[in-house]
Amino acid sequence: MHTDGVVEAIDDVSGAVEENVHDEEDLLEELARVRRDRVAGVPLQEALGRAGRPRALVLMGGIVDHLTLASARLRHALVTALVGEGESVTSIATHFEVTHQRISSILRRGRD
């Protein structure tokens, strides 16, 4: 069976979004908890917890990281497939609304 890089990258983005749904629900709960504590006059250090980075920041970082990595892979797969189908770098750049240098960079580095 033929492996399609675009399909694999779409699956990666879908997986990242699904993973983020859970993390976003956790983030909403954490933000609501910290907000309740602040409104109730709880000191910020206590509301955030003293161990490690604040949980809200950890969750937000993970959400951003999942989408950043998956979108880079999708962008690379799309550009590579379009070049493989005969599209020019300039044409792809126009379609993606970026410079041709950006498209060349995506192709050269394999990710962005």
Biggest β-sheet: count, sense, barrel?
A: none
The helicity comes to over 70%
Percentage of residues in DSSP E strands: under 5%
Order of helices and strands: HHHHH
The beta-strand count equals 0
The geometry reads as elongated
Calculate Rg over CA atoms.
20 Å
Give the structural class. mainly alpha
Summary of the model, kept short:
The protein has 112 residues and is mostly helical.
Q: What would you say this structure looks like, in words?
A:
- The chain has 112 residues and is mostly helical.
- It has one domain (5-109).
- 79% of the residues lie in helices and 0% in strands.
- It has 5 helices and no strands.
- It has helices at 5-39, 44-48, 55-84, 89-96, 100-109.
- Helix 4 packs across helix 5.
- The longest helix is centred in the first third of the chain and has 35 residues, at 5-39.
- It is elongated.
- It starts with a helix and ends with a helix.
- The relative contact order is 0.13.
Can you lay out the helices and strands and say which pair or pack?
Layout: H1 5-39, H2 44-48, H3 55-84, H4 89-96, H5 100-109
